[in-house]
Description:
By secondary structure, the protein is of the alpha/beta class. The chain has one domain: 3-Layer(aba) Sandwich (Rossmann fold). The chain is 29% helix and 28% strand. Helix 6 links the parallel strand 7 and strand 8. Helix 4 crosses helix 5 and helix 5 packs parallel to helix 6.
Amino acid sequence: MEPSARPDPSTVLKIERLCRDFAAGDEVVHALRDVSFEVRRGEYVTIMGPSGSGKSTLLSLLGCLDAPTSGRYWIDGEEVGRMDPDRLAAVRNRRIGFVFQSFNLLSRVSALENVELPLYYNRSIPARRRREMAKAALDAVGLSHRASHRPNQLSGGQQQRVAIARALVGEPALLLADEATGNLDSRTSLEILALFRRLEEQGKTIVFVTHSPDVARYSARTIRLLDGRLQEDAPVADRAFVEEIP
């Protein structure tokens, strides 16, 4: 396949005819089949689909945790499919901020130290600057007053805010969220969705992977997968909004 034109600067994410196959005994499972779409800078996009639709496989590819069988993938103007493992690791650390369903915080260190962690892999950032950036990220999610608390001293919603701050601290090109409200009650889920809405207003680029149509309604655009294929890519017609809950 000949390379397409380099994405313009307003495009943060571009995938083109992405396929991912897995061997299952004598058979081949086509987890993704010719999926193509773009995400522009400042967009808040949901990738949605039922179990087995291919969204987890796509999430691994978008997060540079796996390589496609065929197709191309650009992030922030760079094609990642041909990168060596070291360069790919650098892209994961500096271009992508991850938010997981299970928070993935270290239990024995403070919220501030959890937020600092991704910056340790960038040796160009001195210790004092790391601390300043972590404090600013916690402030951005409304948790500067809990900086010294450990995860077991925080509520589930507060832990997820710390995880979001950790994803934001390196100022990545893309915020990639995997069922980021899946472990939260309905009220706390709305708080987190309000936070994502605020981040969108600040110009952050967000891709939120979920199985829930209710969660997808808070994004600006929904990409639907079914059986490894793109079924729909359209703006959210009845977009829901939520104010920050005190």
